[in-house]
Amino acid sequence: MKLTIERGALLNALGHVQNVVERRNTIPILSNILVEAKGKEVRFTATDLDIEAVDQADAKISAEGAVTAPAGTLFDVVRKLPTGADVALEYDGDSRQLVISSGRSEFKLPTLPAGDFQTMVPDEDATEFTLEAADLRRLIDKTRFAISTEETRYYLNGVYLHTADTDGGKKLRTVATDGHRLALSEVDAPKGAETLAGVIVPRKAVGEARRLIDNEDGDVSVSVSDTKVVFKAGRAQLTSKLIDGSFPDYARVIPKGNEKAMIIDNKLFEAAVDRVATVSAERSRSVKLSISEGKLTLAVNSAETGQGHEEIECDYQADSMDIGFNAKYLLDVAAQIEAEDARFLFNDPASPALVLDPGDTSAQYVLMPLRV
Fold it and tell me: Which of the two ends of the chain, N or C, has the fewest CB atoms closer than 10 A to its terminal CB?
């Protein structure tokens, strides 16, 4: 194998795939990227056996072939080469090394046979549809912060992607919850997604899909089967196994009768929560919200770490109430609000609160209260 490629194109392709590789591997070849040179393109593939990332780039290929090289080292070497430089990749069969040369720089990396590299086989009978990259970014960004990290409830370790019937027609919806909070986002269901059955996309795949479309302006192709999901953007592709489990009936958790409305300046609220939470106990991060007509008082009272309180104005016309929340959860939701004001809907101190964004009516957030 022998080829020459522009450094920027090489770095972009490697950047799309190398994050899939786990830094600590008991199987040596899983630490490598598969490099395949054929025709006028070079193809890069990385996998951890659950997720596979592929990208391609144009190159001047003198000799076709394939080899695998250490993902992290290859990416770091290319990243540190001068911008705009041409990079030559050549496999030295005698020493079994990949030679990387650019200008006066030369590096030799150990390799493993391409034939030992495992790739994923696509499933047939998949549901396929296309949506704008901006819509997919919104679906991911508005929900992924609520994905559970508790491995025992593995079915919560991802985003639930499905089509839902609403008063406004069919929606493509993402939902994530860790049992203490819930985040929901939706867009109009694109053509082909109307019959999509619910699937759970793993946390790592969600993050890699988001990275894949970070700078994408066009459309993203999505293919969903019973066991896999495939995202295609440009020449890059991400394939992931799905979580085999049943997502809970999240609709039962979303409050329907919360009538006590608090409208508050989101930036002021976010800053106040952040300040008061400075003296909250690390484990619970509990903050008490005392809400009365026109005023919200945030308070923390910890025997170990101290006390703090702050008052801010709000629009609230219902009966006074005290309710507690995890400060981090409040901050996570506040970070998603696009409008100047956030709208909180309460029922009582023991019931979940519904948080709405006047600037994005397609998103909903549910927070479970804490005892205070």
Answer: C
My answer on whether 136 and 234 are in the same domain is yes
The residue-averaged pLDDT of 174-182 equals 97
Nearest to residue 160, comparing CAs of 169, 101, 178? Answer: 178
Buried/exposed 8-40: b ≥16 CB within 10 Å, e otherwise = ebbbbbbbbbbbbbbeeeeeeebbbbbbbbeee
Nearest residue to 241 (alpha-carbon basis) of 112, 323, 331, 123:
123
**133 and 246 both lie in a single domain:** yes
Q: Which distant-in-sequence residues (6+ apart) come within 8 Å of 97 by Cβ?
A: 91, 108, 109, 110, 111
Residue 122 lies in a domain: no
Among 192, 218, 252, identify where a domain stops: 252
pLDDT tens digit sequence for 304-346: 778 999 999 999 999 999 999 999 999 999 999 999 999 999 9
Q: Is 95's pLDDT higher than 80?
A: yes
φ and ψ at 102, to 5 degrees? Answer: -155, 120
| Region for residue 139 given its phi and psi (left: phi exceeds 0; alpha: psi -120 to 50; beta: otherwise) | alpha
Average pLDDT, the chain: 94
Last residue of a domain, one of 204, 230, 252: 252
Q: What's the pLDDT band for 281 if we cut at 50, 70, 90? A: confident
pLDDT at residue 31 greater than cutoff 80: yes
Task: Output helix, strand, coil percentages for the chain, rounded to the nearest 5.
Answer: 20, 45, 35
Q: In terms of domains, do 133 and 82 share one?
A: no
| Dihedral Cα 39, 41, 45, 51, nearest 10 deg | -110
For the chain, what is the domain count? 3
Judge if 245 and 264 occupy the same domain: no
Q: Are residues 107 and 167 in the same domain?
A: no
State pLDDT tens for residues 42-59. 999 999 999 999 999 999
> For the stretch 230-253, what's the b/e string if a residue is b when 16 or more beta carbons lie within 10 angstroms of its beta carbon?
bbbbbebbbbbbbbeeebbebeeb
Q: Are residues 211 and 316 in the same domain?
A: no
Tell me the pLDDT band of 284, cut-offs 50, 70 and 90. low
